[in-house]
Design brief:
The complex is a heterodimer of chains A (409) and B (377). Chain A has 19 helices and two strands. Chain A has 409 residues and is mainly alpha-helical. Chain A folds into two domains: 99 residues, no CATH class; 221 residues, MetI-like fold, CATH 1.10.3720.10. In chain A, a hairpin with a 5-residue loop joins strand 1 and strand 2. Chain B is α+β, with helices and mostly antiparallel strands and 377 residues long. In chain B, helix 5 packs parallel to helix 6. Classes of the chains: A mainly alpha (409), B alpha+beta (377). Chains A and B meet through helix 15 and helix 16 of A and strand 6 of B.
Chain lengths: 409, 377
C-alpha cells in the first residue's frame, strides 16, 4: 500500500504519528525517570548484592589463586599458606581484615578471631609457613576451613540463598538442612504467607458487606459512609497502630471491659497483642480500604436489574446473590484480594510494633539483617525470594483468574 | 382461547364467566415513596387472561411503579393486588411465577445465552435433559437457535432483546411483564420487534402487561391501553377507541396529533354543542366532557379529519390562510391560520384530487361535528 504520492503507507503513518508519540513519551518521561532511579535501580542493586561476593577475592587474591590447584582432600601446600600470610599482612596494612573477618564469620563461627589473629602475627612469621600458621591456630590445619575459603573465593556466591532457605554447607561442602534449632526462615516465610492469607480473608469478609451497603445506598449517604471507610487512610499509621495497642493490651480497654462484664477473671486477661492475633487485627484495619474500594467500584457498576431479573425468574434471595450477584463481583474480589495480599506480604511497621514473637513477618527479619546484623547479602537474598514469590503468585493468579478481569477502580 | 381471539370485550366476558374473577386485579391500589405524595392514586384495573394490556404514559406517571408492584419489587402502600384471585401482596417475587423483560434486558453477562435461558429452569430443579430441550425450543421460537453458546455481550441489541423475551417465557409463566423492552433499539428494529412480540403473544396465549411511553408501540401491539398520567388511569380502552374517542384533553394530546381549540360552551343538547372561540367563531362539536352552558372546554380535532374545500353540507366550514407547507411524502403537513389560531395543522393526503396549495393562499376548510370533540378545559 502506498499513499497518493507514492510513499509506503506504513512509513507515512509512522511519520504522521511520530509527533503524537513523542508528546506521549515526554508526558511519561518524568515519572519513568523517577521510577527507574528510585525503584528499579535500587531493586536491581539489592538483587545484585544477594549474589555479589567481592571481599574474599579482593582481600586474599594470592591465596585464592594458589588454592585453585588444591585438590580439596589433604591440607593445601606450603605456598598456599605463604600466600595467605602475605595477603593477610597486606590486608592488615590496608585495614581490610575486619571486613574479611566479618564476611567469613557468616560462613562459620570463630572465623573472625581466626583471621584477625593470623593477620596480627603474620609479620613475625618465618617459613615454613604451614607449620607456623597451624601452630598459631590449629583450625588452619582443618581442610574444612580451606574448603570454605575455596568456595567463597569466587566473585559470586550462593551462600546467602543457601542460608535464606535454612540450608547450609556441611564439612564435605555438600548442601544439607540446618540443624532444627537453627531453622527460622522457611517457617517465617510460611507464617508470612499464612498471615497474609488470613488478613486477606478477614478484609474480604468485613469489606464485602460494607462495599455492598455503600453501593446500594443513595449517593449522599454512601458518600458519608465512604468517609468512615477512608478515615484509616487519613490517619497516621503509627497513631492507628498505637491505638490498637491501647485497646488490645492486657491492661487495655477491651480486657478491662471483659473483666468488668465478668466474662474473664482479672488474672485471666487475654493476650491479644504482641502476637499473631494482634498483627491480623491491626493489619486488617489498615488494609480494609484496599479491599472496600475496588469492591465498591465494581458493585457500583452492577445494575440492580440483574438481581431483580434473577428473582423474577424464580431465584430466592440467596440463589440470586450466589449465582448472579457474586459472580459479577469477582473482578472486584480479585483486585481487592491481590492488593491486600501483596501489600501485607511485605508489610513491616505494624508487625514490628504489635507482632511480638508470633506475629513477626519475613520483612521484620529483612530489616533486622539490614539494620542490626548488617548482613546485607542475606537481607537481599530474603528480599529477592519474597519478590520472586509474589511474582509467581501474581502469575498463577493471572493464569487462573485472568489479570485483565481485575478492576482496580 | 389462544387460537380464537375475538374482540377484547368478548374475551373479558368469557374469562369473567369462567373465573368469576379477572386474571389480574388492582383494587384501590395506592403507592407512596415518601409518605407525602402519591405516585399511584387509587388504581383499579382488571386484566383478562390472555390479554395484551399496555400501560402508557409519560415518565413519572406511575406506570412503571404499577408494574413493579405487580412483579413484587415494590409494595403497595394501600389496596390489594390479586393474581388468579389470590392476593399476592405478601408473595415474594420469586414465588409469583411472573416472567419479566427489563428495560436494559438484564441478561446475566457472565452466562452464555443458553445458561441465561436455563437459569429459571435450574432454580426450579427441572431435569437436565428437559432443560436442554426447552432451551432449544425457546431459542428456535425467537430464531436464535445457533447462538446458544454466545455471551450476551457478543449479541446485537435486537438479539439480546429476543433472548430477554425468551428467558421471560421459557419457564412458561401465565403472566409476562415488559418494562419498556424496546427502548434501546433503533426505529426499524423496534417496529420489527413489536410485530414479533405480538406474534409470540398470539401464538402462546400468555397474558402480557407492557409498559411504554411510546404511543405507536402501544397502538400496534395492545388489546387495551391504560393511559397513565399523574398516578391515575386517564382512559382505559382499545387502541381504536383511544385514538378515535379520547375522553379528555390529556389523552387526546398524548395519543396522536390533534388541534386544540379553547372556547366556551354556548349551547348544549344531547347530540351536539356549540362552542364560541376567543375570536368569536362558533363551532359545532360533539359534547364528551362538558356538563353545561358556560363551561370552559378544549375542542380536539385530528389533523387528518379536516377537509380542504369541503362539501357544502359540512357542519363547520371556515376560511383559512395557509402559513406553511411541509412535504412528508405520503402527506403534506399544512399549517394554517383558522379561527384566530395559527398552529392549526391539516394533513393533506398526497393524491391527485388535492391540488397544489401555496403558502399565503386562502382556502376553505371544514370538518364534521362528530370529529370535533368538546373535552375538559
Amino acid at each position: 500500500m502506498v499513499t497518493a504520492d507514492g510513499v509506503p503507507l506504513k512509513i507515512a503513518l509512522a511519520r504522521a504519528e511520530r509527533r503524537r508519540r513523542l508528546t506521549a513519551f515526554l508526558l511519561v518521561a518524568p515519572l519513568l525517570a523517577f521510577i527507574v532511579i528510585t525503584f528499579i535501580v535500587p531493586i536491581g542493586q539489592m538483587m545484585w548484592r544477594s549474589v555479589d561476593n567481592p571481599i574474599v577475592v579482593a582481600t586474599l587474591p594470592q591465596t585464592i589463586e594458589a588454592l585453585g590447584e588444591w585438590d580439596g582432600q589433604d591440607l593445601p601446600s606450603e605456598n598456599v599458606y605463604a600466600a595467605l600470610v602475605s595477603d593477610l599482612v597486606a590486608a592488615q596494612a590496608n585495614r581490610t581484615v575486619g571486613q574479611l573477618a566479618i564476611r567469613m564469620n557468616y560462613e562459620f563461627s570463630g572465623a573472625r578471631s581466626l583471621f584477625a589473629g593470623l593477620a596480627r602475627r603474620g609479620d613475625d612469621m618465618q617459613a615454613p609457613f604451614r607449620e607456623a600458621v597451624i601452630e598459631e591456630n590449629d583450625r588452619w590445619g582443618d581442610p574444612a576451613v580451606w574448603q570454605i575459603l575455596q568456595r567463597e573465593g569466587r566473585p559470586y556466591t550462593a551462600a546467602y540463598y543457601v542460608s535464606a532457605v535454612d540450608l547450609r554447607y556441611n564439612d564435605q561442602g555438600e548442601i544439607e538442612r540446618q540443624a532444627p534449632n537453627q531453622r527460622i526462615y522457611v517457617a517465617l516465610f510460611l507464617r508470612t504467607l499464612a498471615l497474609s492469607v488470613a488478613i486477606t480473608c478477614t478484609t474480604l469478609l468485613l469489606g464485602y458487606p460494607i462495599a455492598f451497603l455503600l453501593a446500594s445506598l443513595p449517593m449522599r449517604t454512601s458518600n458519608l459512609l465512604m468517609i468512615f471507610v477512608l478515615l484509616p487512610f487519613w490517619t497516621s499509621l503509627l497513631v492507628r497502630t498505637t491505638a490498637w495497642i491501647v485497646l488490645l493490651q492486657q491492661q487495655g480497654v477491651i480486657n478491662d471491659i471483659l473483666v468488668w462484664l465478668g466474662l474473664i477473671s482479672n488474672n485471666g486477661r487475654v493476650l491479644m497483642i504482641h502476637n499473631a492475633f494482634g498483627t491480623i487485627v491491626a493489619m486488617t484495619h489498615i488494609l480494609l480500604p484496599f479491599m472496600v474500594l475496588p469492591l465498591y467500584s465494581v458493585m457500583k457498576g452492577i445494575s440492580p436489574s440483574y438481581m431483580r431479573a434473577a428473582r423474577s425468574l424464580g431465584a430466592n434471595n440467596w440463589t440470586a446473590f450466589w449465582k448472579v450477584y457474586m459472580p459479577l463481583t469477582v473482578p472486584g474480589i480479585g483486585a481487592g484480594a491481590i492488593l491486600v495480599f501483596i501489600i501485607s506480604i511485605g508489610y513491616y511497621i505494624t508487625p514490628a510494633l504489635v507482632g511480638g514473637q508470633s506475629g513477626q513477618m519475613i520483612s521484620n527479619l529483612i530489616a533486622f539483617h539490614m539494620q542490626n546484623s548488617l548482613n546485607w547479602g542475606l537481607a537481599a537474598a530474603l528480599g529477592t525470594i519474597l519478590l520472586v514469590g509474589v511474582l509467581i503468585l501474581y502469575w498463577t493468579y493471572s493464569r487462573i483468574v485472568g489479570i485483565d478481569k481485575v478492576k482496580l477502580g | 382461547m389462544a387460537g380464537n381471539r375475538g374482540t377484547v370485550q368478548s374475551m373479558v366476558s368469557v374469562s369473567s364467566a369462567a373465573d368469576d374473577q379477572s386474571f389480574v386485579r388492582f383494587h384501590n391500589v395506592q403507592k407512596s415513596y415518601d409518605g407525602e405524595t402519591l405516585v399511584v392514586k387509587n388504581l383499579n384495573l382488571d386484566i383478562a387472561r390472555g390479554e395484551f394490556l399496555t400501560m402508557l404514559g409519560p415518565s413519572g406517571s406511575g406506570k412503571t411503579t404499577c408494574l413493579m408492584m405487580l412483579a413484587g419489587f415494590e409494595n403497595a402502600t394501600h389496596g390489594e393486588i390479586r393474581l388468579k384471585g389470590q392476593r399476592i401482596d405478601n408473595v415474594p417475587p420469586h414465588k409469583r411465577d411472573i416472567g419479566m423483560v427489563f428495560q436494559n434486558y438484564a441478561l446475566f453477562p457472565h452466562m452464555t445465552v443458553a445458561e441465561n435461558l436455563a437459569f429459571p429452569l435450574k432454580v426450579r430443579s427441572i431435569a437436565k435433559a428437559e432443560i436442554a430441550e426447552r432451551v432449544k425450543k425457546v431459542l428456535d421460537m425467537v430464531k436464535l437457535g445457533h447462538l446458544g453458546n454466545r455471551m450476551p455481550a457478543q449479541l446485537s441489541g435486537g438479539q439480546q432483546q429476543r433472548v430477554a423475551v425468551a428467558r421471560a417465557l421459557v419457564f412458561e409463566p401465565t403472566l409476562v411483564l415488559m418494562d419498556e423492552p424496546l427502548g434501546a433499539l433503533d426505529k426499524n428494529l423496534r417496529e420489527q420487534m413489536q410485530y414479533e412480540i405480538k406474534h409470540i403473544h398470539e401464538g402462546l396465549g400468555v397474558t402480557i402487561v407492557y409498559v411504554t411511553h411510546d404511543q405507536s408501540e402501544a397502538l400496534t401491539m395492545s388489546n387495551r391501553i391504560a393511559v397513565f398520567e399523574d398516578g391515575v388511569i386517564q382512559q382505559l380502552a382499545s387502541p381504536a377507541d383511544l385514538y378515535e374517542r379520547p375522553q379528555n384533553a390529556f389523552v387526546a394530546s398524548f395519543i396522536g396529533e390533534n388541534n386544540r381549540l379553547p372556547g366556551k360552551v354556548e349551547s348544549l343538547n344531547g347530540k351536539d354543542c356549540g362552542v364560541r372561540l376567543a375570536d368569536g367563531s362558533l363551532i359545532r362539536a360533539l359534547p364528551v366532557n362538558v356538563s353545561g352552558q358556560g363551561d370552559a372546554t378544549t375542542l380536539s380535532l385530528r389533523p387528518e379529519r379536516v377537509r380542504i374545500n369541503p362539501d357544502s353540507g359540512t357542519d363547520n366550514t371556515f376560511e383559512a390562510k395557509v402559513e406553511e407547507l411541509i412535504y412528508l411524502g405520503d402527506h403534506i403537513r399544512t399549517r394554517v391560520n383558522v379561527c384566530g389560531n395559527d398552529e392549526f395543522i391539516i394533513k393533506v393526503p398526497n393524491s391527485e384530487q388535492n391540488g397544489q396549495l401555496a403558502a399565503g393562499e386562502t382556502v376553505r376548510v371544514g370538518w364534521s361535528a362528530q370529529d370535533c370533540r368538546a373535552l375538559d378545559a
